[in-house]
Structure formats: C-alpha cells, structure tokens
Amino acid sequence: MKLGSCTLAVTLLLMGHSGAGELLDVDPPAEATSMLSSASPVMRMETLLKSALAAHADTEVIVSRVELPPHTTLPEHWHPGEEFAYVIEGQVFLWLGEQSVSGHAGELLKVPYKQAHWAGTGDEGATLLIFRVHEAGEPERVAVE
C-alpha cells in the first residue's frame, strides 16, 4: 500500500468526509446477488495499528488492510464501535439493515455503532483500509446468529 493512500484515508476520516457510495435499494440488487457466492474465497486481513485512545481509556482504534477476492460474501456481523472503510481498489457492496450502498475506489463508507451488516464483492474484488473506533477489550467483530 502506498503511504499516499493511507494519508488520504486518514485525512478524509479526520475531516468527517462521509463519502458514502451510491445508494442502492434495500434488498441487494439482482446484479450484486448474482455475482456473490456462498462459498467465498478466503479474505486477507492485516492489522496495521491497534492502540488505546489517550483521552478515552475505554476506547481503542484498529486500522486494518483487508483484501476481498472477487465473488466474496462476508457473513452478517457487527462491531462494538464504528467502522470506516476507505476503498483503495475495486468495489464493495455493503448492506446495513434498511440501507444498502456500494463503494468504489476512492470512496469512504461508514458502518454505524453496533449496526449488523454484511458485505460482498463482484467480479473485481476489493482492497479496503478499515478504521474501527470501538470499546476496548471487546472482540473486533461479532457474528449475527
């Protein structure tokens, strides 16, 4: 990953840039569901930073680089905090209960606090820079049963 991409993502995050991708229908669009597979290839995730916030002892920030292969579906889950995803390459589909979005390279998506969601990719896959600000000591993600 180039330092410039990381710097841009941090700058957009700190500026409060919503960058929300294209709004989709509540149900996954037909072209997205036809591209997603139930037998997803393995994603790669690298934690770049995990640190407590000095001003908030019960809160930490986690920064990860995530590579999602083409035709990947991540199961429904939630995080004990807020999640921000900067799309470095490709396209990701994100379903957040009543709202669905797609994010393309150069866009920033937000997952609200403890919001159950799932994500998937189409033909291109996606590389994301993920920023999570959440409750310290809690798991990074919790599966929805």
Brief account:
With 145 residues, the protein is mostly beta strands.
Ordered list of secondary-structure elements with their pairings:
Elements: H1 3-15, E1 22-24, H2 30-35, E2 44-53, E3 56-68, E4 73-78, E5 81-96, E6 99-104, E7 108-111, E8 117-120, E9 126-135, E10 142-143
β-strand percent reads over 45%
Q: What is the string of SSEs from the N terminus onward?
A: HEHEEEEEEEEE
Residue runs with pLDDT of under 50 for 5 or more positions: 1-40
Which architecture would the CATH scheme give at its second level? Answer: Sandwich
| Rg, nearest Å | 15 Å
Q: Could you name the CATH homologous superfamily?
A: Jelly Rolls
- Separation of the first and last Cα atoms: 34 Å
CATH class: Mainly Beta
Helix and strand composition category: mainly beta
User: What fraction, in percent, of the residue positions are helical?
Assistant: 10-25%
Shape: globular
Mean pLDDT: 77
Kindly identify the CATH topology. Jelly Rolls
Instruction: Give a count of the beta strands, DSSP E runs of length 2 or more.
Output: 10
**Count of discrete domains:** 1
Number of discrete helical segments? 2
Largest sheet: 10 strands, antiparallel
Protein name: Cupin type-2 domain-containing protein
Signal peptide: 1-20
Keywords: Signal
InterPro entries: Cupin_2, RmlC-like_jellyroll, RmlC_Cupin_sf
